[in-house]
Amino acid sequence: MADQTMDSGKPTLAVQPPAAAKKDTHKRRPFDEKKFEAKKKKIAQRLRAEEELEQFRQETGGTIGGEWVNQKWVAKQVGNASKKAAGFDFTLWLKDTALYFAFLTAFTLSVFAGRGTQQIVSYENVWRRTVMTHLDTATNHEGVLQFFDDIVGELSAQDNTDFPLDNYTFRAQYGTAFGSALVGAIRLRQVRVQSTECSPVHTKLVVSGLAKGYECFPAWSDGTEETVYSKENGTVYDWNSTIFDYQTADDTQQVAIQGYFGLYPGSGYVADMTLQDAPDIIAFMRDSHWIDFKTRAVVLEYMFYSANLDVFGDTRVMFEFLPSGAVHPNVLVAVISLNRYPNDGVWSLVRIAMIVFVYLTVVFYILDDMDHCRIVGMAKYRTLGWAHMDLINNLLFVLSGLFRLANFIMVGLAFPDTATDSDVRQKIRSVGDALYMEDQINGLNGFLLWMKLFKYVGVTARIIRLANTITYSLRDVITYMALFAIISYAFAILGYLLFGSELATYQTMTDSLVTIFRAMYGDVDFLEVLDKAGTVGFIYLFCWLVVSVTVLLNMIIAILADVYSKVVADEKDNPPSALVGRIADEATKRWLEVFGHGAKVEFAEGG
């Protein structure tokens, strides 16, 4: 019991002293504001360095070697350190380069190799030579009919009665020539114009007794086609022959054909012939004057098939008959190979495998670009560079693949059981046009792919210097080209108006532009100009050559020289980081790590 004390007679309890508090054994560091600020600053510097590195990678991603800046590298300094010490991922570069080389090799071999171009060109020359040999006689109506006679005569002379037609030709045996079978008939198709009233000047000449007749035959244009065969003054005869019956484009299964003086429809008056009956039909045309002053175009077309080469030789000769009475010929000879992937053993399988590999690689590149854009956005497309060439390549490959698929389907549908010979011939031409377009796309793709080799190999400071010169001068060059185009067009108009009626090289605006461009590079005949255009023509050409060669061409040289000097001066303060230098630095670093003292070596700047 607690002790009690008496104070003034009142008891009081004694108070025990409190127990001593438990001693805190945890040591608390005093808050160091300086260290906290330093650490915060270090984190901020690190984040800023990462942002600068990403910005630098995006800026160089479209330039030479910029694809392989190591994305995992983190700069330890700020400011320009990110750019100077940006890491180069040698392994990534090696993988990308090896894949691209395999891709480029497969594309080149699959598209351009093994196509037998020399054989195809030789076969085309056979048919072209056949036409060109007799073309000089076709200068008027009678000359054109004589040309038809000569062509049929030469083809008939090549007709071999012992030739195995059953192995070559289609349902009808139309004939053979040069070891090839005629596909369908030889066709002549005429396009005619309606007669119109003559001009007021002609009317006055008639009244004054200096001219006769009130009917004229205009140049070809839309809406002037004659659909009922008639002679002068609208006279219609009963010829009792189908060659005077009008047929629409649906009936003829023909498409419009572009001539030098107009676009002519697929309709008209048609004469289909075999090699055997062609001479009689042409003789009837001559007697009945099938071609007259209403005729504006006559198209001769025939197609042969060579089983030995497995190709079709398509020949089309169009004669344009002008109101002046002149005749202008146009010759088109094409060789069409429908079987692009022949089953000729192991090589055929290898080629198909390469095509599959090419398009699988394209899919990989497209997905990789999409993933890149998903992560960092469209930053790499903001600056003109390799990224845009990659995009164009991918789009062209997609377009080429669609053409391949469409052409494969069209080849399968080109020979239906119920089709006529004319249908088959037109389908073959349509497939040939589509295959030609596919070849154009592949050719452009091949050019871009080979140009992209500079992105992967052989990149030095000199190449970067030239590339920068072209890039930095682009705006000035575009401005210069606009100025050049205006001046060139002005001179072309002047030449067309001055000499269009005297010189064939200036008879249209297109001809005039081509002529002055050829003259700019020295391809000009001053004697012809002096002979036909006199002193005015000489002065015109002299002024054009002074302006174009002495002034304009030297101006573009001055622009490029000025930009090149600025690029060279800038390299002294900011040396280019060439891909070759980066590879050499990376190889040296790996060598020292393996064979040196074991310490890792960091290079501040490559190349």
Automatic annotation (TrEMBL):
Signal peptide bounds: none
Record membrane topology: Multi-pass membrane protein
SS bond list: C198-C216
Keyword Transmembrane helix: yes
Gene3D superfamilies with a match to the protein in the record: 1.10.287.70
Polycystin domain segment(s): 171-338
GO molecular function: calcium ion binding
InterPro entries: PKD1_2_channel, PKD_2, Polycystin, Polycystin_dom
Alphabetic keyword roster: Glycoprotein, Membrane, Transmembrane, Transmembrane helix
Gene Ontology CC terms: membrane
Subcellular location: Membrane
Keyword Membrane (UniProt): yes
Region named Disordered: 1-35
Lineage top rank: taxon: Eukaryota
Transmembrane segments: 346-367, 391-415, 447-465, 477-499, 538-561
Residue ranges annotated for the Polycystin cation channel PKD1/PKD2 domain, each copy included: 349-567
Similarity comment: family membership: Belongs to the polycystin family.
Protein name, entry field: Polycystin cation channel PKD1/PKD2 domain-containing protein
Source organism: Hemiselmis tepida
